[in-house]
Amino acid sequence: MQSAASPEPGSPIETAQRCYARGDHPCVIHALEGRGRTPSEMQLLIDTYDAMGNQPRRLATMERFIRMFPSDPRTPLYEQILAQHTWYRGR
Predict the structure, then answer these.
(1) What crossing angle do the helices spanning 39-52 and 12-21 adopt, rounded to 10°?
(2) Whole-angstrom distance, CA of residue 4 vs CA of residue 87
(3) I want to staple 41 with a disulfide (CB 3.0 to 4.6 A). Which of 1, 34, 36, 86 is the partner?
(4) For residue 39, which of 22, 61, 21, 54 has the smallest C-alpha distance?
(5) Rg (CA), the chain
(6) By three-state DSSP, how is residue 12 classified?
(7) 66 sits in which H/E element
């Protein structure tokens, strides 16, 4: 099994999807964190943080998604999720 230390060829989303399929969450983060530029890339990063139970990073990535893609159909859901986490808004 390759990990984040073993880069794979392909676009960031292709690499991240392969990593996610095999359950290699650190590899997904390595492929996309700071590089996510599309709604699909950001969605996969959000899903990965969720699978890892990393709520603060999941919420922070949702917040970035909302700023980057205000008209995306997922934005209202992310706004609702963030609004439910009042502790997050106070940071």
Answers:
(1) 30
(2) 31
(3) 36
(4) 61
(5) 13
(6) helix
(7) helix 55-68
